[in-house]
């Protein structure tokens, strides 16, 4: 069963991170976190491009990178699917590494805003609890 693209990806248009990289990172996190399981059908390039108002080449580039990295696999005539995960890909350490760039950006913004550690950690703890 294919996953609906508008629920799968969200794009931060004002981000300095390229859109294709946002798509790649989100897909990696969804696979590592188990929200996307091996064998799940991915929405087509066209569906993602239309749902998010993106150039299809941007989505195609992201899918190509995910395929090269072994996250997705192409089934001829059927589309892209989540690949079988090699052992260790969903380890805590690998998931932490996927989260690290996001936390580094948040830490940089907190320093730029001159927020103290306790305030930032309190906010982060509150946000973690809200999403449960």
UniProtKB/TrEMBL annotation:
Classification via InterPro entries: Tscrpt_reg_HTH_GntR, WH-like_DNA-bd_sf, WH_DNA-bd_sf
Organism domain of life: Bacteria
Lineage of the organism: Bacteria, Pseudomonadati, Pseudomonadota, Betaproteobacteria, Burkholderiales
Protein name stated in the entry: GntR family transcriptional regulator
HTH gntR-type domain: residues covered: 17-85
Database matches in Pfam families: GntR
Keyword Transcription: yes
Keyword entries, A-Z: DNA-binding, Transcription, Transcription regulation
